Amino acid sequence: MTTGLQLGHPGIYPLGSREARQEPGFEPVRLDETGFVGVALRGPVDTPVLVASWSDYVRNFGAFEREAQTPDRLLPYAVQAFFAQGGERAWVLRVAPAPDWTGDDAEAATASFSIGLGTPNSSGSLPESPGLAAASEGTWGTGLRIRLGFEVLQSFDATLDDDGGIRLPAGAVLAPWSLLRLRPLDPPGLPSLGWVAGERRTDPHAGGRSAVLAAPLTAPAGGSLRVDVVTAVLEAAATGAGQSERLTGLGLGPDHRRFLPEVLASDSLLLRATGNWGWNDALPNLQLDDIPVLPVHPGEDRSSGIDFRSFYDDGPADQDSLDEAVHRGVDAMGRESRIGLLCAPDLYWRAAPPAPEVPVPVPVQHAASCSCGREDPCGGRDTAQQDPDYAPTDDVQPGLDARDPGDLAEIIRRQLRLVQVAELRHRFVALLDEPAGLSLRQIHDWRTGFDSSYAAAYFPWLGVPRVGPGRPALVQVPPSSFAAGIIAARERQLGLSWGPANALAAGAVLSADVVTDATHDALHLQGINVYRQERDGIRLSAARTLSTDPEYVQLSVRRLMTMLVLTLERQAQWLVFEPNTPQLRATLTRMLTAFLQDQHRRGAFAGGTEAESFFVQCDDGLNPPQSQGLGRLVAEIGVAPAFPLEYLLLRISQDVDGAVLVAGPEQEGGHA
Question: Do residue 272 and residue 340 come from a single domain?
Answer without folding.
Answer: no
